[in-house]
Amino acid sequence: MLDVLRPGVLDGLRVCVAGGGAPLRARAAELGATVLALEADLDDEEAVGAAVAGLGRIDVLVVDAATPFVAAGGGMAALRTAVDGSWNAVRATVNAGWTAAEGDDPAGGKVVLVAPGADAGVHATAVGAALENAARTLSIEWARLGVRTTAIVPRAGARDADLAELVAFLASPGGDYFTGCVFTPGVAPAAA
Predict the structure, then answer these.
(1) Distance between CA 59 and CA 56 in Å, rounded?
(2) Could you count the other beta carbons within 10 Å of the beta carbon of residue 146?
(3) Which of 119, 129, 133, 112 is nearest to 70 (CA)?
(4) Where does residue 136 rank: exposed (0-12), middle (13-18), buried (19+ CB within 10 A)?
(5) d(CA 161, CA 128)
(6) pLDDT tens-place string over residues 123-177
(7) Going by DSSP bridges, is the β-strand pair 109-114/182-183 parallel, antiparallel, or unpaired?
(8) How far is CA 92 from CA 38, 138, 161, in A?
(9) Cα angle vertex 62, ends 59, 64, to 5°?
(10) With CB atoms 3.0 to 4.6 Å apart as the test, which of 27, 32, 47, 48 could cross-link to 11 if both were Cys?
């Protein structure tokens, strides 16, 4: 894939990646972001809250739900891990710094939810549907807080480099124009 974004486009941004996302972290760092890793068991709400509180300012939260889904082996248990862990990371981040005291302007921020690819195992498409629904719903509920939420639901054959570039674009100033959207990169299904 060609590099689409100019070097330095993420300068000054603090991008936190939860759930793994090594290619996502690497691309954000190449483009100038300070990259933070949310090092906590995403299923443990208290641990996630404590870890987020220790990271300081977060401008963009990227939740890689694919890595924990695949690590859990697919199926219902993996679906719960991916969806519940994503919610725990999002809620902790919003509560830690994106809400404002009464009368203050909200701080806001961006959330990018990354689902497993459609070919990642049983219930991978359900994870994608859940994260798409979360992005659409939260974009309305948290608009007053300045929180912009998007989801990436890869089709079969989506490449890590393409996902990383799309995440970086959504983190960039160009991504300011998107909320409540779902992006479906990858190989389009063949026409019948």
Answers:
(1) 10
(2) 16
(3) 119
(4) middle
(5) 19
(6) 999 999 999 999 999 999 999 899 999 999 999 889 999 999 999 999 999 999 9
(7) unpaired
(8) 11, 14, 28
(9) 165
(10) 32
pLDDT tens per residue, range 26-71: 999 999 999 999 999 999 999 999 999 999 999 999 999 999 999 9
Structural domains of the chain in order of their starting residue, each with its CATH number = 34-96+105-183 (3.40.50.720)
- Cα–Cα distance measured from residue 131 to residue 74, given in angstroms and rounded to the nearest whole number: 16
Q: How far apart are CA 93 and CA 54, in angstroms?
A: 11
What ranges in the chain are assigned the alpha helix state H? 22-30, 45-53, 66-71, 75-93, 124-141, 160-171
> What is the token pair recorded at 163?
């996902």
**What residue has token string 């760092």?**
29
Start-to-end CA distance of the chain, whole Å, equals 28
